[in-house]
Amino acid sequence: MTDAFPPLADLAAEEAELQFGSFTNDDAWELGAALVATGRRAAAPIAVEIRRNGSRLFSAALTGATPDNAHWIERKVRVVERFGHSSLFVGQQFRERGTTFEEGAGLDPQLYAAHGGGFPVLVRAVGPVGVVVVSGLPQVEDHRMVVTAIRAHLGR
User: Fold this and answer.
1) CATH of the domain at 129
2) Mean pLDDT of the chain
């Protein structure tokens, strides 16, 4: 069973809370390694990617992940980069307006996916500088995995 979508206000609060003071290559490595460790413990068939300013800093695919996950990652990254919010936030914006991302955004669904799992790397006083993405679980679970890892990394 797929979890219910969280309200937009909750997703906005996560983005306000989960901001970095800075974001280095070491941060990307530590965050990515934590996501991989979580995925392994859960035997989750996930792929993980972390980017900063268009550069891929971390990428991993666990047992059970498929080439399809890479396609989902690209589509989620495009949504986060275009809208500056998590991919779940963007999808929820459309749901709360009574439509779907596919109907309302006017973007090619083969290139953009407003499905949970993509989260912006937000640096205080700077804004979005990158993206953390998980693909392979139901979308709300992908999102929660990323949020939990960022929260732990930030010590919150």
Assistant:
1) 3.30.450.150
2) 96
Angle between helix 87-96 and helix 8-17 axes, rounded to 10 deg: 150
Which pair of structure tokens corresponds to residue 102? 């596919």
pLDDT at position 1: 41
- Could you write out the three-class secondary structure of 7-31? CHHHHHHHHHHCEECCCCHHHHHHH
82-117 confidence digits (pLDDT tens): 999 999 999 999 999 999 999 999 999 999 999 999
Q: What is the DSSP letter of 6?
A: P
1 occurs within a structural domain = no
Q: How do residues 62-84 score in pLDDT, each as one tens digit? A: 999 999 999 999 999 999 999 99
What does the buried/exposed string (b/e) look like for 57-93 if buried means 16 or more CB atoms within 10 Å of the residue's CB?
bbeebbeebeeebeebbbbbbbbbeebebbbbbbbbb
Count of domains forming the chain? 1
Q: Which residues pair with 119 in a beta bridge?
A: 132
Element (H, E) at 152: helix 139-153
DSSP string, 39-96: HHHTT---EEEEEETTEEEEEEE-TT--HHHHHHHHHHHHHHHHHSS-HHHHHHHHHH
